[in-house]
Amino acid sequence: RLGLAGWPVYARVMRSTVMAERKKEYVRGAMVLGATDLRIMFTLILPLVLPPMCFVAVLDIARMMIFESVLGFLGLGVQPPTPTFGNIIADGRKYLMNAWWIATMPGVFLVLTLTSINLMGAALERARNAIYGGAHDVARHGPERGAADGATPVGRGTRGGRHATPDTPPHPNP
Q1: Is the pTM of this model over 0.90?
Q2: CB within 8 A of 105, min separation 6: which ones?
Q3: Exposure of 155 in the CB half-sphere (CA atoms within 13 A)
Q4: pLDDT band with cut points at 50, 70 and 90 for residue 2
Q5: pLDDT at residue 27 tops 50
Q6: Is 161 a residue whose pLDDT tops 70?
Q7: Neighbours of 89 (CB within 10 A)
Q8: Residue 106: CB partners within 8 Å, gap ≥ 6?
Q9: Per the CB 3.0–4.6 Å rule, which of 24, 77, 159, 169 could disulfide with 71?
């Protein structure tokens, strides 16, 4: 039931990605070439929608774990004998003075689990930005990759530029 409440976030992420991509030249080019709407959706737009959706899903898993733990601690979540982080922490409260680790260790493991999930989400987002480009990539490299360090920007030729390749002669004034 907790997961059903989060669908507007997925809808918003998907809509914003689709709205940003649908006006781009490659979509117009596919339409001019006669690609059907389904082909454009599944081959051009869907691969660009999935990475942000996966990122949101990873963060949503962590959020749901927190909600479930809080509800389990309050006794409103999954009922015993099914073990959850919240149930185990709540059951360990009565042993807190004599055996503090019974309540503390599930909390530590919950924090480690949530940290691991968030680190995985951050790694997915970095990998997505490295492949498709993104805000972090633009901030580091400028609007054109490589333009900030004086190298030839991607997509531009090197003929007559500062950084010549072996098949082009170097610029006369380096």
Answers
A1: no
A2: none
A3: 4
A4: low
A5: yes
A6: no
A7: 20
A8: 85, 88, 89, 92
A9: 77
Which residues fall within 8 angstroms of residue 103, CB to CB, at 6 or more apart?
88, 89, 92, 93, 95, 96
One-letter amino acid at 82 equals: T
Q: Give the number of other CB atoms < 10 A from CB of residue 110.
A: 18
How far apart are alpha carbons 112 and 106 in whole angstroms?
10
| 96-120: pLDDT as tens digits | 888 888 889 999 999 999 999 999 8
Q: Which single residue is written with the structure tokens 């997505």?
A: 128
Q: In the chain, which residue ranges form alpha helices assigned H by DSSP? A: 7-21, 25-32, 37-39, 46-74, 85-92, 101-132, 135-141
Return d(Cα 83, Cα 95) in angstroms, integer: 17
Cβ–Cβ under 8 Å, residues 137 and 128: no
